[in-house]
Design a protein that fits this description.
Blueprint lengths: L4 E4 L6 E7 L4 E6 L5 E6 L4 E6 L4 E6 L4 E6 L2 E6 L4 E7 L7 E8 L5 E7 L16 E6 L5 E8 L2 E6 L5 E6 L4 E8 L4 E9 L5 E7 L5 E6 L3 E5 L5 E6 L5 E7 L5 E6 L6 H6 L6 E5 L13
Antiparallel strand pairs: 1-24, 2-3, 3-4, 4-5, 6-7, 7-8, 8-9, 10-11, 11-12, 12-13, 14-15, 15-16, 16-17, 18-19, 19-20, 20-21, 22-23, 23-24
Length: about 300
């Protein structure tokens, strides 16, 4: 396995939400903090493009016909890459305006899973203290019916499924533990919540699962990505030259490149001098194959 390298010198304030489009050989990721951005790198065309967003965006899933499903501060939206149009589909928590969406992903049936949290990012990019666990975990089907699965969440992160889709992985970053659930996908229910994995560096952020069923978890404040085996034991630790590692996914034609987003939000000038690569998109050539990201069904 090679070392982690900078793939895109994008210096995101809060890089997140990276997904791989297998059908177009394209990488998408986000810069959450306002002015929020959707970023795209086409491997076929060798083109890097930035789309400015009208509100804070936090998670995405690919759709058909050059459309992207986007979770944002206030709800669920569609963005057309050709027309560059952002249209709201539904307001997720219209009676709780202090909340925003956070991490999310599509499952193998095309449902979109999304978590909410008390907004902790001010309009100027400053910090807002989280004073309550006001977040929830939802799934949204192709007809945009919303189902609630969990409440009392501080920061919703990690949306990943085992290769056979019978296990769902999720975490509340503030609790420091990654949970596993049995996924009854026929009835779209998550059951038998268990503590899956803990690690003593940083806090659990976004994750992905490889073809062998190992979970790769990014560590906020931990300067690394940790690979856990299916029993929750540490298999390996991937070091990064930045403190805040946020999200990862496998991509490339063989699905063996791990792409990793990072952040520089909240870092002092002195901290940025020590970790000047913070906020960049990194890549790691691995010796294992990942799983392709799923599309939203509609």
């Amino acid at each position: 396995m090679k070392k982690v390298e900078v793939f895109q010198d994008c210096q995101n304030i809060l890089g997140e939400g990276v997904i791989w489009s297998e059908s177009t050989n394209t990488l998408f990721w986000l810069d959450i903090a306002m002015p929020s951005k959707l970023l795209q790198y086409s491997f076929n065309k060798d083109i890097y493009k930035i789309y400015n967003m009208p509100e804070m965006i936090t998670a995405i899933a690919e759709r058909s016909n050059n459309n992207i499903l986007i979770a944002s501060h206030y709800g669920i939206n569609n963005y057309n890459l050709i027309e560059e149009k952002f249209n709201q589909i539904l307001k997720l928590e219209p009676n709780n305006l202090q909340n925003r969406c956070n991490d999310g992903a599509a499952d193998f049936q095309g449902n979109f899973w999304i978590g909410t949290m008390q907004n902790n990012i001010a309009a100027d990019g400053g910090n807002i203290d989280i004073k309550q666990n006001s977040g929830s975990l939802y799934s949204i089907d192709k007809d945009f019916n919303v189902q609630t699965h969990e409440t009392d969440i501080g920061i919703a992160n990690t949306f990943a499924w085992s290769p056979n889709n019978k296990k769902f992985y999720f975490c509340d970053t503030l609790k420091g533990v990654i949970n596993s659930y049995d996924y009854d996908f026929n009835n779209k229910k998550i059951l038998n919540k268990k503590d899956f994995a803990r690690f003593d560096r940083g806090y659990p952020d976004g994750s992905t699962v490889d073809a062998d069923g190992f979970l790769w978890n990014c560590r906020w404040g931990g300067s690394c990505v940790v690979r856990f085996d299916p029993d929750g034991n540490v298999d390996r630790v991937i070091e990064l030259p930045v403190p805040n590692v946020t999200c990862c996914t496998f991509g490339g034609k063989d699905l063996k490149t791990l792409f990793i987003t990072t952040a520089r939000i909240g870092m002092s000038d002195e901290e940025l001098k020590k970790a000047p690569l913070s906020g960049n998109l990194f890549a790691l050539q691995t010796d294992v194959q990942g799983k392709a990201d799923f599309k939203f069904a509609n």
